[in-house]
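#struct-help
A.M.: can someone run this one for me? Single chain, 322 residues.
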Amino acid sequence: RVLRVLRVVRVLRVLKRAAGLRALLVNLLLAGPALVNIGTLLLVVIFIYSTMAMVLFGDVIHNGVINDFTNFETFGNSLVLMFRLSTSGGWNDVLDACMVQPPDCDRDFAGLANGNCGSPVGARILFSTYILFAFLIVLNMFIAIIFENLDLNDDDQALVVTERDFDSFYAAWGVFDPRASQVIYQNQLPELVQHLEPPLVPRIGLTEEEVYKLNIPVYENNTVHCADVLHALTLQSMRPHHGVESHEHDQVQQLFKGKMESAFPARRRLGAADTTTAEWQRQHQAACTIQRYFRASLARKKGNHQKHLATLYHGGVYSLAV
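D.P.: on it. Structure tokens below:
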């Protein structure tokens, strides 16, 4: 039965699909050292206040929430009770019980200085400062550290392209290349980019003109290779942070090229690229400009020819009338 109960661990498989939950657990692991330090500080505070509470209220008569199980009579009981109070749960009830005064207690009990009565001033100071340090400061530091790591992780994800981003790129590429030929037509690039997410593309996306400006090599039949597309997208995601002409950017580019060549050896069979998307875009714009002016010229010539025919027609009609 014990082994069957362990089957519940299978629910952890959801982490493979739940990217947000996986990122949260990773953040907790990364924040582990800082959380250990804060936890140690919390234990020190609990230890100090448990000792003080045992000395001050170890002989308080059982009343209210102070009973055989919840008391400060031994260090163990005091430690457990102060640990419970670190969440601020019911601390005011314990405070009231430690402020007990005659006739509910005996000041001459067992010849003790304060008998089995409490200390209103001491209880207020002890528990108020304990809640201030243990709950309002130390425990909230846990939350602050976790949020800080979440923010840092978000910044890192915005700056760094991870394996998960590569996997999302390959998944999007598979939609346009179901036969895994590693090439698609260049006119499919804008639609491919629409299926991608940051940091490979900006949060506002890329326009068709910006996609072609990535200067991706174009091979025969106007095809592009997935390694070249991934290379270009990775570099453009780093440009806002490293600078296009920086030495660090050049090193990353050379390293990435080497890894792409080893990961995609079949790309070598494509040979040298015929052109690039940026060059193709310039040629396309030049061709469109030439066609536009050519059509405008034809329209003007056609208009002039029609005017000439109209002039001849009207002139012929006028001569016949004369």
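A.M.: thanks! The radius of gyration is 39 Å.
D.P.: also worth noting: DSSP finds twelve helices and four strands in the chain.
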